[in-house]
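Predict structure. Chain length: 443.
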Amino acid sequence: MKSLIRILIIVGVLLAGSYFAVRRGQLWLAARNQPKFRTAEIQTGDLRISVNATGEVNPVDRMRVGSFVSGPIEALYVDFNTEVTEGQLLAEIDPRIYNASVARDEAALKTRLAEVDRVKAELQRAINDEGRSTKLREEDAEFISQAELDQYKFSRIALEAQLQVAEAGVSQAEANLENSRANVGYTRITSPVDGIVIERLIDPGQTLAAQFQTPEMFVIAPRMREEMHITASVDEADIGLIRSVQDSGQPIYFTVDSYPDEVFRDARIVQIRISPTVNQNVVTYPVIVATPNPELKLLPGMTASLTFQVVELKDVKKIPNEALRFNPEKPQVRESDRHFLELTLQEEANEESARSALTPPVDEVASAAANAARRVVWVRETAAEAEADGRQVPAHMTDGFSGMLRAVEVVVGESDYRFTQILSGALDAGAEVVTGIRPRETP
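Prediction complete.
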């Protein structure tokens, strides 16, 4: 009998030990399988709303200097990167054939002038002859006939016409001489503006042919130290924001790859061009941004990464964007808040249907955009909240939380790449919101 009792006691002890061991194992597995949520705090601080774009750095203008006359290049006085002033000699074309033209036209002018003097002398003689014949006719009609008098008269008229022709010939010769002298001047290529030679398209000894089109010799960028332009391509959806930046004078920042650690801040919008570019159904507009360049750090062709600050909000309550994108699974949410998941799924289904079906009316789209400001974020439910809701908190939850998530409705406002402004909602600064689930640790 005693042996049976002893056996029963041993069996009872073993069963009790097994029960507590299994229970402890269940609690350990439950704690191990409990999801570990990543959280972040609601902050109070500044929020800067901006639009980003890329653009190309270029001079304000490009003066293309060409040649009006043909001939071989006799001398070059500037090269790439040479800073020039207005009127400075850049190059010379061989002027010999043009100097010869000047000498020829000067001789032709002298000939025309001599012809004028000769015709004037002939005209003066004809005038004198006509005058004497008229006096003789007045003294006695028998001294000279009317036919002879007409001969003197028309001879004078003819010489007057010859004088006009000769004087016209002088004018023509002077014009030819002026043209030849201008061509000689065109052999001296000078700078039309103050600037920097950014391109040289000729070499010494090269022959220019300007019969059909003006050959380009140099490209000069004026005022490169004073101002450079950045041509940025901005999406049509952001043009309204860019206009507000231009009107309000908000700051513009940009960087270039040559100086990745330097932020250029002294920039302004000078023009939003109404000349759209369509590429694969994407419409962009060129926005011209001006910036000084006293040290010539900005060179033509550089790529600039720009940030247009639309508005800067001071001391606002803001939430990490990850918290707005987080959607928990149904078992992780307390039962009273699971309808928020169903609303979220319904909204996603409506968005997918709208993308695949016909476009909804614009007034409904605008209304949906307004309603999109109302969002749901998730916080970890405390043990006290769970007990107040009539649920028993598992004993293994020792960190003060029930292990479930609670929904909080908020109304959001402006957003940047990290945070979004909270306009209203039951969340104070310092409150923790769930942003994701940490991966399980492997044993």
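Summary: Residues 95-185 form one domain.
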